[in-house]
Specification:
Order of helices and strands of chain A: HHHHHH
Largest sheet of chain B: none
Oligomer: heterodimer
Structural class of chain B: mainly alpha
Radius of gyration of chain B: 19 Å
Number of helices of chain B: 9
Strand content of chain B: under 5%
CATH class of the largest domain in chain B: Mainly Alpha
Family (chain B): Belongs to the sigma-70 factor family. ECF subfamily.
Protein name (chain B): ECF RNA polymerase sigma factor SigE
CATH topology of the largest domain in chain B: Rna Polymerase Sigma Factor, Chain: A
CATH superfamily of the largest domain in chain B: RNA polymerase sigma factor, region 2, helix turn helix motif
Keywords (chain B): DNA-binding, Sigma factor, Transcription, Transcription regulation
Distance between the termini of chain B: 58 Å
Pfam family, one (chain B): Sigma70_r2
InterPro entries (chain B): RNA_pol_sigma-70-like (IPR039425), RNA_pol_sigma-70_dom (IPR014284), RNA_pol_sigma70_r2 (IPR007627), RNA_pol_sigma70_r4_t2 (IPR013249), RNA_pol_sigma_r2 (IPR013325), RNA_pol_sigma_r3/r4-like (IPR013324), WH-like_DNA-bd_sf (IPR036388)
């Protein structure tokens, strides 16, 4: 009698059985691996850190990019205050421009008697 | 909040079946990210990596060696090497699992070479726990038969078949682990499957396959 060969589908079923019956490590092995991990870690230069939640300021500090970003922000703030208090000569007088010192001719006399005295003075 | 867990707690949580496995509470973090944190002294990362990687490494070593006690030694040694090299890990160069599979393969090869000549009878069948359901028994006998047939394959064929058909890795990933080409992996798995098929054909009926 000719023996039938195991086909691909049957072989796949055998592989599936192997997947389902995977050997699992004993608790002793898990403990030993964990002990090894701790012992090796204890030898690193950095002391082990206990995991703890970060505060909101710590989180903000981390998100912004740490000390380099903080140094940049502080420099920008000091420069802004300095330029505002002591503007360099080459900058236009922004306050005068904003209030319209050059536009005095457009002032409208709204006095109660409606005499348009200022307009006449301007002309 | 992350918790740190000592070895005693792991022992208490220690798994005996898949359903008992403690949960990996950092499932969304990559192995590499956890390894980086481990290297900076994070104990929670050590715990997460242990829970995540030990079962995988052990299962692979068992399939490669077929002897649980030997697989335990290989697992412990492979992970010890991972812990020691963690501070020198170069980010983005390789996946942690790829690196581990490679280490496991080397350790298994050393042991198989040393053990060559040991009678196959010395390889125990997987433990037969009191399983009541017939299909569970059948599943176990199929797994045992496959392990016995895998033990007869040349090491590289065995490794390629296990990684491809049992652990479900892709050919390019297996090629990286085995430091060869994807074509070579394809050839190794094809030859391995043919050899397994030939070895198991005589046991088809015993393994629950009919001629219909």
């Amino acid at each position: 009698m000719i023996e039938k060969k195991m086909d691909d589908n049957e072989l796949e079923s055998v592989f599936d059985a192997a997947k389902e019956t995977a050997s699992l490590p004993s608790s002793d092995l898990m403990s030993q691996v964990m002990r090894d991990a701790m012992a090796v870690q204890a030898g690193f230069a950095v002391p082990p850190v206990e995991a703890r939640p970060r505060g909101i300021w710590q989180e903000l500090f981390r998100v912004l990019g740490g000390w380099p970003t903080m140094a940049g922000l502080a420099t920008a703030a000091v420069a802004g205050v300095w330029i505002g208090a002591f503007p360099p000569g080459f900058l236009p007088d922004l306050q005068a421009a904003y209030l319209g010192a050059d536009d005095a001719a457009y002032l409208i006399d709204t006095a109660a008697d409606g005499g348009f005295d200022l307009v006449e003075e301007a002309i | 909040m992350l918790k740190t867990v000592d070895a005693d707690r792991v022992r208490r949580l220690g798994p005996t079946r898949a359903g008992d496995m403690p949960l990996d509470t950092m499932g969304d973090e990559s192995d590499e990210a956890l390894l980086m944190r481990y290297a900076t002294g994070d104990q929670a990362a050590a715990q997460a990596l242990t829970l995540r990687l030990t079962p995988r490494v052990y299962a692979h070593a068992c399939r490669m060696l077929g002897i649980p006690a030997e697989a335990e030694d290989v697992t412990q040694e492979a992970l010890l090497r991972l812990w020691r090299m963690a501070p020198d890990w170069r980010q983005g160069e390789a996946r942690v699992t790829t690196w581990l599979y490679r280490v496991v393969a080397n350790l298994c090869t050393d042991r198989l070479r040393r053990a060559r000549g040991v009678a196959l009878d010395a390889v125990p069948e997987p433990e037969d726990e009191a399983a009541s359901a017939a299909d569970r028994m059948l599943e176990k006998s199929r797994a045992a038969a496959l392990q016995a047939a895998l033990n007869l394959l040349p090491e590289r064929q065995r490794q390629a078949v296990i990684l491809r058909h049992i652990e479900g890795l892709s050919n390019p990933e297996i090629a990286e682990i085995m430091e060869t080409s994807a074509d070579a992996v394809e050839s190794l798995t094809a030859r391995g499957k043919r050899a397994l098929s030939a070895e198991l054909s005589g046991r088809r009926e015993e393994l629950g396959f009919s001629d219909d």
